[in-house]
Design a protein that fits this description.
By secondary structure, the chain is α+β, with helices and mostly antiparallel strands. Helices cover 30% and strands 44% of the residues.
């Protein structure tokens, strides 16, 4: 029986955001995993678990007291749309940080193979095939 993509992703978010243990979450990716952030100023493609981990650390470093909530939407047997709501504060400024973003995850053989990040909810739902 193939592992459920929604359950895999939910557990990964729990490891990262509730248990502060990102390493096991990133080790569960396929070796050729692609992390695609087309609107990110640091570059739009990272490869492998190391690339995803690097992006994640760069992205969260300027903030502290980060908290993430997520909703997961099944977009097929091997695709999941994650709607993420993040809040915290700037590490240096103390200013509140709030962000809504979306990620479309593709899984192969029970491992995450690709993640594409979006900053517009409608585009993410369309990319996931969930917009009628």
């Amino acid at each position: 029986m193939r592992p459920d993509a929604v359950e895999i992703l939910h557990r990964g978010y729990e490891l990262i955001w509730r248990e502060d243990d990102a390493d096991p979450a990133f080790r569960g990716e396929a070796p050729d995993f692609e992390w695609v952030g087309p609107e990110h100023p640091e570059g739009e493609l990272r490869r492998g678990a190391g690339g995803a981990d690097e992006f994640f650390r760069e992205w969260t470093e300027p903030c502290e007291e980060l908290h993430m909530d997520w909703e997961l939407h099944r977009a097929g047997p091997d695709r999941v749309l994650a709607v993420l709501r993040m809040h915290g504060r700037g590490r240096d400024s103390g200013a509140p940080v709030e962000m809504l973003l979306e990620q479309v995850w593709t899984f192969q053989e029970g491992r995450s193979a690709r993640m594409v990040m979006y900053t517009e909810l409608e585009k993410a739902f369309e990319a996931a095939g969930l917009l009628e």
